[in-house]
Design brief:
The protein is 79% helix and 0% strand. It is built from 2 helices and no strands. The protein has one domain. With 62 residues, it is an all-alpha fold. InterPro entries: RNApol_su_b/EpuA (IPR024596).
Length: 62
């Protein structure tokens, strides 16, 4: 009974981790496609802090 419970919990935790990793990858891919494909800029620039400073500055009106 105990081994079955541990196996069930391990399966659930690994499934949650897999979904979390896939969500993070989808967000990263979406950011890169949006910034690079639609914005016409280098997709890897989305990971630079200066891009995010500019983005949040525009949102806050600075």
């Amino acid at each position: 009974m105990f081994k079955r419970t541990i196996k069930f919990l391990g399966l659930r935790i690994s499934l949650i981790l897999l979904v979390l990793i896939l969500v993070i990858l989808a967000i990263m891919l979406g950011l890169m496609l949006g910034y690079g494909g639609l914005g016409g800029k280098n997709p890897m620039d989305i990971f630079k802090p200066s891009v995010w400073d500019d983005f949040f500055g525009k949102l806050s009106g600075l």
